[in-house]
Amino acid sequence: MDYKLLITDLDGTMLNSKSEISKKNLEAVHELQQRGKFISVGSGRLYVDAIKFARQLGCQNNFNIANGGLTIFKEGEEEVVAHFEENFYKRIVDILRYNNIPFVVMTSKYSGAFYDESSKEFVHKCKSINQDTLIDFVETDVRELKNVFKISSSYKNVDHIFLHREMERLHSDIRADIAGEYFIDLSPRGVSKWSGALRIAKEMGISTKEIIAVGDQENDMQIVGNVGLGIAMKNAVDKLKNVADVVLPYTNDEDGLYHLIHEYML
Q: What are the Cα distances from residue 145, in Å, to 60, 84, 136, 168, 254?
């Protein structure tokens, strides 16, 4: 198969443990583009953070960023597909507060994230994990926010993960995705990396069978399981490895994307 598009996750995949794109990965991406092929970003990061890496990769007008209920297909063009229903959103906030689970909230009206006083320690953790983040965190009464498309919360143990799964089970309009070692995201159903892949394939006039997708976390399962070639990093979670067509023998700290591009796209 002559694969035409690579959709890559950022953290744990394209980025190394220092949140950097390695020189070898970047060189491979540029060689791919010189061959007339394309790369897109599918990331759970907020737009303000994800866009800087998309620019570094030279994605230009052919990238999509899926972040909960917000999907951006081209720089400067933002398509908000799904928000939480207002009363249901308030119920989620009440449940998280009652169970002492810290969280931050994203709305389509602001490029940063909101939190309340009880989540200050979690915000500090977010900043320490992504020290180069451009996200502004604003303290407010999050329960009164509107146009919310994503809730990113911390999980400290299996009980917290179970609680999020129960919320997902009880309400068919939300989904819960583990997104990294510390985070679990709640978002409206219907918007995901996979839905972004479908949209960009249509815009490019290609089949999804001509797409390679690569990632490392549970929130990559749908796209990795549906494209032409789904790839999991060596450092990926077992759930993703189980649905992938290929498990790379390289981690994100071993220039995994360099090896992927050279083996499957050049």
A: 33, 11, 16, 21, 42
Q: Count of alpha carbons within 13 Å of 212, Cβ hemisphere only?
A: 27
Could you please state the CATH topology (level 3) that the domain comprising 5-80+191-264 is classified under. Answer: Rossmann fold (3.40.50)
Per-residue pLDDT at 61 exceeds 60: no
> Which positions ≥6 away from 46 have C-beta within 8 Å?
67, 106, 111, 112, 113, 135
Domain 86-188 has CATH 3.30.1240.10: yes
Closest CA to 98 of 83, 84, 118: 118
Q: Check: CB of residue 10 under 8 Å from CB of residue 43.
A: yes
Q: What are 142's two structure tokens?
A: 């999050």
Residues 108-153: tens digit of each pLDDT: 777 788 888 888 888 877 777 666 665 778 889 999 999 898 898 8
β-bridge partners, 132: none
Q: Which residue has the tokens 């959709």?
A: 7
- The CA-CA-CA angle for residues 39, 224, 113, to 5°, reads 70
Residues contacting residue 136 through CB under 8 Å, at least 6 positions apart: 111, 112, 113
pTM over cut 0.85: no
